[in-house]
Amino acid sequence: MTFLSAGSPLSQPFFQHALLAGTSIAAACGLVGCFLVLRAQVFSADALSHVAFTGAMAALALGYDLRLGLFAATIAIALLFGTLGRGARPDDVVIGSVFSWILGLGAFLITLYTTSRSTTDGSAGVSVLFGSILGISSAHAVTAALLAAGICLVMLLIARPLLFATVDEAVAAARGVPVRLLGHGFLAVAGAAAAEATQAVGSLLLLGLLAAPAGAAIRLTDRPYRALALSAGLAVLEVWAGLFASYAIPEMPPSFAIMAAATAVYAATFLVRRPTTHPATETV
Predict the structure, then answer these.
(1) For the segment 4-21, what is each residue's pLDDT rounded down to a tens digit?
(2) Which CATH superfamily is domain 11-271 in?
(3) C-alpha distances in angstroms, 120 versus 162, 203, 244?
């Protein structure tokens, strides 16, 4: 009963909504982020962070819900990366070219939005940049949780063949694994995860939620499936730590607190000496 007392954050509806959305989003980002690191596609996530902002601003400038722009832009650009890249693995030149164009478009949309619709929702652009998880409504929290659960389910379903294609693409293709289709599908899921993460930590910091827990997990274990579980678990714990820290210190933005926790955990892995083990026994 102590945790649900009047002074407890768990007794506050807004904190319950943030915890529901944050937990599910973190789990999804942990699973997706692990494959982003394994497939050396972290730069793609960095580009998607700017795409998320541009997409949200485009939706707002046109008078639509910003979440529509978030998901449409991130998924579309993620698929574009896969289409332009070889084997649905976009290289740095492709990502950098799209990246620069997206940044220019984002600058134009900021001007368009602030001059035409700033009187209706002037804080929307800031919330997209830095997140607004403590201000999420009950309906939006449930929607975020359902979408994140869908992302987790898809990742669990494709984890085995995607890992095979990640470890040895040529052999996987020879064994009949649809490598290119898997690559496109994963990038689409990564785009959806980026859109989800934007609601929690903002577009400027979503790369941290996708990369830091995964990077820490891979440093702690060389077993891929264990790394997946550890990445998701660390992401959830870091979001919890950030939310409780932000509640205890109101001056601390939740997005900063979450990223501080993620950075601290990743830095701590450099102090842990992983024992030498035999080659991983997990099969792809």
Answers:
(1) 555 678 888 989 999 999
(2) ABC transporter involved in vitamin B12 uptake, BtuC (1.10.3470.10)
(3) 44, 21, 31
